[in-house]
Amino acid sequence: MILNMDDCSTELKSMAEWGNLSTEASNPSSEGLDTLSTEEVVALLLEEDQRGLVAAGRSREGIARAAFRVAETLDDGGTVVFAGAGTSGRLGVLEAAECPPTFGTDPEQIRAVIAGGREAVFEAREGAEDVFSDGESAVADLGAHDLLIAVSASSVTPFVLGALEAARASGARTILVTCTPPGDVSAVADLVVALDTGPEVLTGSTRLKAASATKAVLNAITTAAMVRLGKVYGNLMVDLRPGSAKLRDRALRIVEAAGEVSRDEATRFYDAANGEVKTAIVMALCDLGVELSRERLRAAGGHVRMALAGRSPAEKGSSI
What single-letter DSSP state applies at residue 128? Predict the structure, then answer.
């Protein structure tokens, strides 16, 4: 364990709380885990994962509020940063890494910090999570227009608490996604999404049920936010970046389906729009040239459906 003298009070407080955490408790369903057959172990793990997802479903209102805040932050030109340690940190890294190819966001708009730095993504650096000041310094560049999404299954990880404290001091908005019961951690962030997934099959191993539920929640937050921002039309990812042969083929299939045209026509519109899927769709459905289609999309705030109807974002409303 890495200890800084300045962090000792936080370290001792965390140690005192660990034994009382629901994520550290023993799961009665798995007390005889080592006596079960392999198939029975697998079945139990999958059953507990399902329970974790049910727990996440009970927090859908908070998840929706988190998505709204992500959309609001990005729409205002701010940055969204995920912060975590260990498995929680890697989930944040994964979420941030997948937004650019899926939704066309800039890598600097949505990014992640993890205790121990980049190396910790590939190799465990368990003691790194214990340094409160590292969490503070990892988000020192955040300001009032930005949003921190802290991820901690236990809710007492010093690195994460340091990041939350620094972000709040800078005026940034804060969200904590945790797998502990609601209530005890309500004061550490502006919005707390507490999933209460309960004890793990393998006692304390929050890479299991807690991680599965957390991954689902982070997926829901970013995807719902991108829907609000107009990066989805129907159920199609119309702002994807075609950085591979598979993604280019997907982009053409999207233009073909949404634009109601043949594959050859989809390719012609797509190429004329310089790979802008949204522009190609508007060209196909509105019989417009590239620049007029782009202008329609700008006026509609990037929302394809509103561009097709000639509406502006102000006419859409702002409900969660």
Answer: G
Between CA 202 and CA 119, with CA 16 as vertex, the angle to 5 degrees is 60
Q: Does 27 or 3 have the greater pLDDT score? A: 27
Cβ neighbors of 274 (< 8 A, separation 6 or more) are 290
Structure tokens at 96: 């941030």
Contact (CB, 8 A) for 255 and 266: yes
3-state secondary structure 220-263: HHHHHHHHHCCCCECCECCCCCCCCHHHHHHHHHHHHHHHCCCH
pLDDT in tens, 144-191: 999 999 999 999 999 999 999 999 999 999 999 999 987 766 788 999
How far is Cα 288 from Cα 283, in angstroms, rounded to an integer? 5
CB 147 within 8 A of CB 176: no
Which of 17, 24, 98, 295 is an active site residue? 98
Considering 11, 129, 200, 276, which one is annotated as catalytic? 129
In degrees rounded to 5, what are phi and psi of residue 225? Answer: -65, -40
Query: What pLDDT, in 10s, does the model give residues 125-134?
Result: 878 999 999 9
Q: Which domains does the chain have, with CATH numbers?
A: 5-18+29-228 (3.40.50.10490), 245-315 (1.10.8.1080)
Closest-CA residue to 17 (of 176, 185, 148, 173)? 185
For residue range 273-299, list pLDDT tens digits in order: 999 999 999 999 999 999 999 999 999
Residue 129 annotated as catalytic? yes
Task: Judge whether 98 counts as a catalytic residue.
Answer: yes
Q: Where are the alpha helices (DSSP H) in 170-234?
A: 209-228
Residue 197 CA, distance from chain mean position:
18
Residue 318 reports pLDDT greater than 50? no
